[in-house]
Amino acid sequence: MAESKCVNLATMEVDLDQRRSSLTLTETTLEDSRHYQCSVTIPNDDEGNTAATTSLLVLVAPSTPICSIQGTAEYYQDIKLTCLSEEGSPAPVYDWKSYNVENNPRQLPPKDGVLSLFNITRETSGFFTCSSTNRVGSASCTFTLAVMPPSSNTGTIIGIVAGVIAGLVLIAILIYCLRRRKKNKNQAHDERYLLSKKPLEIPFNLETLLFLWLYDF
């Protein structure tokens, strides 16, 4: 029996008496999934099959998937939610679940790792969970989607509101000035009227008394 080793990778044993060879892999990883071929060389005998091939599939549970968005989460836009596990053998199967902002489940069509959403609105906002599953295990990620009004429209709305407020302030100032001017004008008119109605002041002396006494007779 002969034995050879590849450090930290594999051990190969050959039993000539039993006409058998074995390859032992240690600490296998996903990179060890491949085809392996065993070749036999017999001097002066080249008849029959001199090689055989086998396949090895190393099973690996899906790694935690990464959830991301493609597009802009604004009203009436089309976006894509993607879900991808970097590792997993056999290849994972992806499944999406969705919950609204009240955490109530809602139906989604069966999809793979890409979920397409069209003409999104505020009602599209919520939580989206992607599960990555194979026969070894599963993992998931959750994406929170908040659909907002377009940024340009938001600026326009703010500008309109500010303009309306400024206009109302100017109108209020104009009304105040007109009323103040009218009040001052009326007050000046009243003062002139009072001056015109002021009683005649007659000096009181002996001549005045004599005049009044003669006038009575």
Helical residue percent?
25-40%
- Tell me the CATH topology of the largest domain: Immunoglobulin-like
Strand order in space, largest sheet: 9-8-11-12
In round numbers, the mean pLDDT is 79
InterPro entries: A33, Ig-like_dom, Ig-like_dom_sf, Ig-like_fold, Ig_sub
Transmembrane segments: 157-178
Protein name: Glycoprotein A33 (transmembrane), paralog b
Pfam families: Ig_3
Model description:
The protein is an alpha+beta fold and 217 residues long. The protein has three domains: 2-56, no CATH class; 66-145, Immunoglobulin-like; 151-195. The protein has two helices and twelve strands. The chain has helices spanning 151-196, 206-216; strands at 2-6, 10-15, 20-25, 34-39, 51-56, 66-70, 79-84, 93-99, 105-106, 114-117, 126-133, 138-145. A four-stranded antiparallel sheet has the order 9-8-11-12, with no helix packed on it. Strand 8 (93-99) and strand 9 (105-106) form a beta hairpin. The protein is rod-shaped, with a radius of gyration of 49 Å. The protein starts with a strand and ends with a helix. It comes from Salarias fasciatus. This is Glycoprotein A33 (transmembrane), paralog b. Keywords: Membrane, Transmembrane, Transmembrane helix.
List keywords for this structure.
about 220 residues; alpha+beta; Immunoglobulin-like; 4-stranded antiparallel sheet; about 25% helix; about 30% strand
